[in-house]
Amino acid sequence: MMTWLRTFGAWLWKEWRDHRAVVVGILIAIPALTALAFWAFGDHLATVYLHATRAVFLGIALGLVNFAIAASLFAGETRRGTMRTVRRLPRAVGSAFAAKVTFLALVVVLVTAWQGMCLAIAEAGNGGIGTDFGYRQGADVGAIRAMAIWDDLGAFPASAWWLNGLGYGVVCLWTLLVSTWLGRSGVAGVGALVVLAALGTPFFLFFLAHPYFFPGPMALVGWTAGLSAAVALVASAVSFLWGGRFEGRVLRPFLLGGAVLLVALGGGYAYAHVALADWLDIDPRDENFTIYDAHVGAGERYLFVSVHRGDAWVGDSNLSAREHATWTGKRGTPLQAWVMDLETGALRKYRGDIGRYFMEVSECMSVGPYRSYEPAPALVCYDLGVDKSAMAVTWWDTVAGEPRRTLPPRVRDAVSLDLVRKTLSACSWQRDAEGRRVWLRDNQVEREGQTFPEVEGVVARVERERFLWPVPGGWYGWRKAKGTVRNPNVFVDIDTGREWAVTTDYRLSGYGNNVMSPDYTWGYLNPQKPMGRKLIPLRGGPAIAPKGELEGLSSIVGRNLVLAMRGPKSGARTVHVWNPASGDEFAIRWDGPGPEGLANASLYGWGGDGRVLLMLASVSPTRTAWAVLSPDLRTARLLSGWARWSNHKRPVALLRDDSVVIAERKQVVRYAPGGEVEVLFPR
Amino acid sequence: METAIRIDGLHMRFGRKHVLRGVDLEVPEGATTVLLGSNGEGKTTLLNACLGVLAYEGRIELLGMDPRRQATALRGAIGYVPSVPDAYDWMRIGDWFRFLRAHYAQWDNERANALVEQLEVPTRTPFEAMSRGQGMKAMLASALAHRPELLLLDEPFGGLDPLVREDVLRNVITALGDEPRTVLMATHDLDVAARIADRIAVLADGRIAREEKVLAFAAGGEAATPDTIRDALADCVKEVA
Question: What pTM does this model have?
């Protein structure tokens, strides 16, 4: 060992003597170039382009090292004809290799530190930007200035700086490798950049295709630099020690070194693909497994769930979070669309390239102001692109549990239009005077059995022009005023197309006011102070509120009734229905155990048969629960017990007697009226 | 007498060129063997194969060691003088010795300095400023400083003018006479061969065409002079060529 160290030391000394003039030249050039740049462009460098400035300065400094030293360490031996010397001396080949690499590393560290110090001095001398630009702006005289420089010197060699140095240093190692192949220092530096680009492009494309697998810029630089350095080092060793062992075999270093690169590259790709496949393989038993959303298909045979693991990756949002250092570190998978056959338990998983998830058919989400929880005959599955937009939409027949069409977003064909109609009909809970289902689509009222003038092709995006509400016997609402939703003063009867001006003195706004009839809205007196809703007359006159302790909560749209509560707000309140027209009220009776500590209730959704879904809340502790009001609004039943909001139970569907709920974001559970619980997913 | 170098069926190819086509050679221990041959016959190639810096087919054994498998031990035991000084240009002889000392366990600094003095190698001149003769003497000194059992010399007198060549040759003869060692020298200089060789091996057409004691080449036997030996060698080389 001592003998080897002695030989190594001799070669290290030889490299220093070989390159000392170049090293000294670089060390002199660095402060000179830095000073020159700050003298010429100081203001811009110090403020606007701070981070770029540092990276560029270090890049130039280590670029000099790359082209003047890294490229000539091996190639110089070839050029001077001293490779024979290296080969013929005992223990020289291994020692020379180790010494050359060590010498390069030492020079990279030295130049990185020296450039950092020169830059810190230049920045401080330029008014100071090291750690606190504003403070340094004032630190421009005497002792304060000296302190600022001292502070900067202490603060400057941050990890990012050294990480930059590592990155550039790795490029030097690749130049070292290429110089063992070419034997010409002049082209080794450029050759290394070409090789790096050739090897890096597939990885770049890999991350472009799978951005959710991107570990973040800092981690990527760290990992890439580390791995790349290791690969370059091993390939250089193989090229020089084995490939260059004998004279006269010019291609041997390239072939052996290239073989190492191919093995490393192949291994890297294989590992990346296996790791990616493994990482995308979500198991419901995973600790961070999460159900994003779920839908029960019409016919109740199939369950459609959108799942992910960790922080859900949606488009580039998490990427952005990483770049802005708000990334929590819990790298999450994109959403995946799973279909479970509830009869057999068979599970089908659809990953997609970027992410897939099930959604309600968009037209059916606006059948009214609240979502329908009726199992829909159709769902769409969005296949996301890198930019978060849907690249393709697959139309699913939820009764058969099969995809029917895959179309570009917002394109409809005969099959998808048929699914839209079926779904609109099934999900609508509003009835007209003849008892037909009725719904809104594109600002227009449509009725079950009606023939629709639908055109296949691209669906035009229809801007919401009206804020419409179902009222007994029709649909009324505000027409949106030009450029604002404030003070809408044109009232619309959507059924007849009649419009008339509202003469109320109250300020009204969009959905803040639920239209209950042509005469009243239920809303805030002042949208700026959304406290306490009242019945607001549209033809003038005082606002009306429930009397006594009865607090009106929300209008039960289409019924001309108001959901109200009675009792202290601290809890243990009771739920009532108030009829503003008659002034009557009645308490809702609980079918089974009622909620304890109830503080608030709100309208949340509807079943296709007219049942009303309520969200209940307790104040202390803050918890939520769900209840279903019967179509006659007389009785209610709790869907499940109280749950913390963060681990809440969220309703998925209202079936005939049962309800389906996402529990703790990890299970889809079916609750029967008698309290029986069945876990539908996972099994 | 033991065999210091044993070469069996040595083949060397450079691309399509088949340079050595089955060389068989035995160099006895303690003898100075001169490898004769015209330019391009493969003398340097043969030495480089012995040094282990060229890949070859066949079997080579130097001092009982395989140059490919026991390269480090073998290179430590042999001295090598290249046809052109291969020290780094900026080095002076002191730098060169300092550099070499780390490679040879048996390096003898006193002997190295004595050789420098004996061979009159300039100590303050870097290799890039040395004359060819000075450079070759420096190479000879550095090849002998670790007291090698075997010395390989590759055309050490090539390119030297006559006066310098005579000076170097005289020094070589003196240095070789200091200690008993085996020497294999490649040259096409018949005069050199006649003056220092114990044995002559003639390389022609990629093979050893003739290998004998030097006196066997001359008609006069023990009474042969260097001049008659040189003439005899010339005839022999012409004949085998």
Answer: 0.70
Q: Among A490, A517, A545, where does a domain finish?
A: A545
Give chain B's mean pLDDT: 88
pLDDT: which is higher, A535 or A500? A535
- Chain B positions touching A80 (Cβ under 8 A) are 88-89
Considering the domain architecture, whether residues A290 and A429 belong to the same structural domain is answered as yes
Q: Where are the strands (E) in A70-227, listed by range?
A: none
Overall number of domains in chain B: 1
CB-CB contact of A635 with A589 (8 Å): yes
Q: What is the DSSP letter of A297?
A: B
- In this predicted structure, the answer to whether residue A643 has a pLDDT above a threshold of 50 is yes
In a domain, A680, yes or no: no
C-alpha distance across the termini of chain B, in Å: 31
| In-domain check, residue A569 | no
Nearest CB to A247; choose among B48, B86, B88? B48
B28-54: pLDDT as tens digits: 998 899 999 888 889 999 999 999 989
Minimum CA–CA partner of B83 in chain A: A84
Name all contacts of A198-201 with Cβ < 8 Å and 24+ positions apart.
A199/A261, A199/A265
Structural contact between residues B59 and B8, judged by C-beta atoms closer than 8 angstroms: yes
- Residue A253 host element (H or E): helix A252-280
Q: Using a CB cutoff of 8 Å and minimum separation of 24, what contacts does A351-354 make?
A: A351/A280, A352/A383, A352/A384, A353/A209, A353/A210, A353/A383, A354/A211, A354/A212, A354/A315, A354/A383, A354/A384, A354/A385, A354/A386, A354/A391
Task: Judge if A369 and A490 occupy the same domain.
Answer: no
What is the spatial distance between Cα B63 and Cα A81, in angstroms, rounded to a whole number?
Answer: 28
Give the residue numbers in A contacting B (CB under 8 Å), as ranges: 3, 6-7, 9-10, 13-14, 17-18, 80-82, 84-85, 87-92, 246-249
pLDDT at site A457: 80
Among the ranges given (A138-147, A458-467, A594-603), the one the predictor scored with the smallest mean pLDDT? A138-147
pLDDT in the model for residue A331:
66
List C-alpha distances in Å: A624 to A287, A361, A615: 24, 28, 7
Give the CA distances from residue A201 to residues A133, A178, A232, B21, in Å, rounded to whole numbers and listed in that order. Answer: 38, 18, 17, 48
One domain for residues A224 and A329: no
| Structural domain ending residue among the three candidates A461, A479, A496 | A461
In terms of domains, do A301 and A409 share one?
A: yes
Query: Lowest mean pLDDT: which of A312-316, A610-614, B166-170?
Result: A312-316
Q: Which long-range contacts (CB under 8 A, 24 or more apart) does A272-277 make?
A: A272/A203, A272/A206, A272/A213, A276/A210, A276/A213
pLDDT, tens only, A235-277: 999 999 888 888 777 788 999 999 999 999 888 888 888 888 8
Beta strands in A300-421 (DSSP E): 302-309, 336-341, 347-350, 356-360, 371-372, 378-384, 390-397, 402-407, 411-412
Tokens read off for B63: 């001092």
Could you give the ipTM of this predicted complex? 0.92
Residues A313 and A377 in one domain: yes
Same domain, A95 and A237: yes
Q: For position A510, what pLDDT does the model report?
A: 54
A418: containing domain? 282-461
Q: What is the pLDDT of residue A17?
A: 95
> Stretch A141-155: mean pLDDT, rounded?
48
What secondary structure does DSSP assign to B88-104, as a single string? -TT--HHHHHHHHHTT-
CB contact under 8 A, B102 and A246: no
What is the pLDDT averaged over residues A347-374?
78
Of A457, A455, A453, nearest in space to A408 by CA: A457
> Taking CA A461 as the corner, what is the angle to CA A459 and CA A463, rounded to the nearest 5 degrees?
145
Chain B residues in contact with A84 by the CB 8 A cut-off are 53, 82, 86
Q: What is the Cα–Cα distance from B221 to B215, expressed in whole angstroms?
A: 5
Identify all chain B residues contacting A10, using CB atoms and an 8 Å cutoff.
Answer: 98-99, 101-103
